[in-house]
Design a protein that fits this description.
Blueprint (H helix, E strand, L loop, with lengths): L1 H36 L2 H8 L3 H7 L3 H10 L13 H15 L4 H9 L13 H18 L9 H23 L4 H16 L2 H6 L11
Helix pairs in contact: 1-2, 1-4, 1-6, 5-7, 5-9, 7-8, 8-9
InterPro entries: ArpA-like, CprB_TetR_C, DNA-bd_HTH_TetR-type_CS, Homeodomain-like_sf, HTH-type_TetR-like_transc_reg, HTH_TetR, Tet_transcr_reg_TetR-rel_C_sf
Protein name: ScbR family autoregulator-binding transcription factor
Keywords: DNA-binding, Transcription, Transcription regulation
């Protein structure tokens, strides 16, 4: 019985590794080619696996793209502990730094204009990130960091839209190297209009804050 359990665990671990390998290869291919330009053949070749191995874990490239888009928020963990308004700031700055070399985030950035081909609007990356921002801003408003008359859902949408536009322009103009600076600039403009005076004085805002040591 112990031997059978051990073999089952080894098989499960191998399956998890294979799934992760396929997902990473897909992220790299999507980041380079976009959704329309990617193919399951390119993905399996990048992963060094057979088509059968890929189809065992993912039904098609649409399923792979959905997996990558849905995983975006989970991949962004700020290096500093924070909550509320500071956490909203830290999330965007961490995303801006990680986007430079994380294939999953790069794939998400490339796929942003093609999401209607593989995922519904109710769960696309815009909606996911808006919910993340809205939760932080709602907590900030409850803790009197954000002014009482501020529509936190509207601000959350604004932040996501601004970050999306910033990464597109940064991609064209600097290879995204100045994306953290652009996100910092956005908060410098936005914070005085939404934060309470006491919170504004406490916020730590510099483009290196989202960068891991």
């Amino acid at each position: 019985m112990a031997e059978l359990t051990g073999k089952r665990e080894v098989k499960q671990e191998r399956a998890v590794r294979t799934r992760a390998l396929v997902a990473r290869a897909a992220a790299e291919v999507f980041a380079e080619c976009g959704f329309a330009g990617a193919s399951v053949t390119k993905i399996t070749q990048r992963a060094g696996l057979t088509l059968g191995a890929m189809y065992f874990h993912f039904e098609n490239k649409e399923a792979l793209a959905r997996e990558i888009v849905r995983s975006q928020p989970d991949r962004v963990t700020p290096p500093h502990e924070s909550r509320g308004l500071q956490h909203a700031i830290d999330i965007t700055l961490t995303w801006a730094h990680q986007l430079l070399d994380d294939p999953f985030l790069l794939a998400g950035a490339r796929l942003v204009m093609e999401q209607d081909l593989f995922i519904g609007p109710e769960e696309n990356s815009h909606q996911q990130w808006t919910e993340v921002m809205a939760q932080d801003l709602a907590l900030a408003q409850k803790e009197r960091e954000v002014r009482a008359n501020v529509d936190v859902n509207a601000v959350a949408r604004l932040v996501v839209n601004a970050c999306t536009g910033a990464q597109m322009h940064a991609h064209l103009e600097s290879g995204r190297r100045d994306l953290p600076q652009r996100v910092t600039e956005m908060w410098n403009v936005l914070l005085p209009t939404i934060a309470t005076p006491s919170a504004l004085n406490r916020m730590r805002l510099d483009e290196s804050r989202g960068k891991s040591a």
